[in-house]
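Weekly sync, protein design subgroup
Attendees: M.S., D.O., the rotation student, P.L. (late)

Item 1: inverse folding check
M.S. brought a backbone from last month's batch and wanted to see whether the design step gives back something sensible before we order anything. D.O. pointed out we never logged the input encoding, so this time it goes straight into the notes. Structure tokens as presented (250 positions):
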């Protein structure tokens, strides 16, 4: 029987890619996102669950719908704050923390509680190197990802004696289509090579990373595959795909 994977934030961006690749590799995939199924890529093999993770009542609905934990859970959904951190209301700050940190934590605990320990469960939590660099604009996002990192460590500890592995995939700037299109427009306007513009962008936006290219979605998928394939050895693991040094290599 096909193994079951849940990918949150599968209606767009990286999550849509991960869900499609898992389905193509034979997984039975439940994808979760806020928008209705008609506005998702509609990938064959991906069953869309419309749910708003910022709403407290959503959690119970998801656990009821899924029952036992899927064999693989990829916590990928993200709420990017609509404005700089210092302009956010308390309610907006709470939404960001709920989607980015609190729901992945609580949903994992609830699903594992309903799952017999004879079944192995792999949990991959997508995080961001931006948690190392908060400035006045990005503070809320960075803090929510830092909270996610700490909660993920705590989950891994709670799973030590379980048939479960909780791992983090920490990513740097992704080659998402919007960012790539924007860089292509700048390159065309300035009459220079796209690769050169990308290098300039990365040096300015992420001076402590040692990468010159955006990270492609498929490298992320292969990292998820790798972490899931490690079995229990991946518990507590942090896999960095971010050209990252957090300053230490420079
Ligand atoms: N993009 C980057 O450069 C970058 C860099 C490092 C790490 N990351 C990490 O990679 C992951 C994917 O990022 P991305 O840029 O690909 O994201 P994205 O394109 O903005 O997609 C976010 C996904 O999360 C879903 N989502 C947002 N709010 C939600 C809510 N309240 N309830 C349910 N679903 C919700 C969205 O669903 P709807 O669209 O249906 O609302 C969408 O499917 C995130 O964990 C992010 O932190 C990204």
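Designed sequence read out in the meeting:
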């Amino acid at each position: 029987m096909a193994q079951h994977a849940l990918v949150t934030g599968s209606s767009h961006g990286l999550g849509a890619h991960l869900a499609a690749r898992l389905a193509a590799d034979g997984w039975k995939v439940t994808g979760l996102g806020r928008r209705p199924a008609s506005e998702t890529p509609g990938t064959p093999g991906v069953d869309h669950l419309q749910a708003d993770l910022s709403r407290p009542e959503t959690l119970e609905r998801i656990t009821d719908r899924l029952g036992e934990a899927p064999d693989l859970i990829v916590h990928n959904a993200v709420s990017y704050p609509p404005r700089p951190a210092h302009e956010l209301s308390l309610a907006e700050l709470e939404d960001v923390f709920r989607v980015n940190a609190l729901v992945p934590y609580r949903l994992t605990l609830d699903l594992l509680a309903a799952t017999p320990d004879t079944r192995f469960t792999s949990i991959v939590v997508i995080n961001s190197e931006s948690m190392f660099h908060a400035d006045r604009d990005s503070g809320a996002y960075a803090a929510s990802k830092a909270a996610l990192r700490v909660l993920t460590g705590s989950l891994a500890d709670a799973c030590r004696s379980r048939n479960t592995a909780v791992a983090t995939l920490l990513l740097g700037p992704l080659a998402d289509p919007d960012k790539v299109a924007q860089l292509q427009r700048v390159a065309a306007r300035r009459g220079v090579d796209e690769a050169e513009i990308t290098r300039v962008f990365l040096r300015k936006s992420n001076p402590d990373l040692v990468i010159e290219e955006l990270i492609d979605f498929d490298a992320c998928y292969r990292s998820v595959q790798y972490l899931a394939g490690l079995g229990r050895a991946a518990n507590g693991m942090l896999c960095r795909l971010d050209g990252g040094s957090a300053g230490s290599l420079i």
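Discussion: Residues 4-174+215-241 form a domain with the Rossmann fold fold (CATH 3.40.50.720). The helical segments are 13-24, 58-66, 90-113, 139-158, 177-190, 194-205, 217-229.
Action: P.L. to compare against the previous round before Friday.
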